[in-house]
Amino acid sequence: LAEFGSPVLLLSGGEPLMRSDLSELASYAVEQGMRAVISTNGTMITREKARELRSIGLSYVGISLDGTRAVHDRFRRMDGAFDQAMQGVDNCQQEGLKVGLRMTVSRANASEVPAVFDILREREIPRVCFYHLVYSGRASDMIKQDLDHAQTRRVVDQIVDRTWELHQQ
DSSP assignment of 150-164, as one string? Predict the structure, then answer.
């Protein structure tokens, strides 16, 4: 990939931190002149893991968040998933590792977008990425969860307005 000229290696999943060789892969990418980043649910980022990831040169950690505690835990089908993800954010911040949030927006969590912006502000998280729901393969039946045009427009307007508000602050 480095010889091909790819500037970034994004390790995603499933859950990339379940790989015992994740640090080795990311370190090798960095040695080859690439940026290495991960997309994770955040639950496995201990303070020690954050320190390790920073030390190998990982440049960014994106932690998936589906909304507030109740919504996120329901999406993840695990009580405490929200708190563990937020602890992962805290651990990255405490170790000086750039961290941001990632949210896939659907009918089930579109109303959570303002709350995610509140979390960004409260926790001083500098980045968020919003994604459209992608339904293909086994997830083809998820088309029912996608936003229609008007809903998408409302969400995009919220994102623009809240981004501008944060920028002004």
Answer: HHHHHHHHHHHHHHH
Query: For residues 139 and 118, what is the distance between their CA atoms, to the nearest angstrom?
Result: 30
Write out the two tokens for 121: 């502000």
| pLDDT tens-digit map of 142-160 | 788 888 999 999 999 999 9
Is the CB of residue 100 less than 8 Å from the CB of residue 62?
yes
Whole-structure pTM value: 0.92
C-beta of residue 147 within 8 angstroms of C-beta of residue 121: no
DSSP string, 35-70: EEEEEE-STT--HHHHHHHHHTT--EEEEE--SSHH
Q: Kindly state the tokens that stand for 143.
A: 């088309």
Expressed in percent and rounded to 5, the helix, strand and coil fractions of the chain are 50, 15, 35
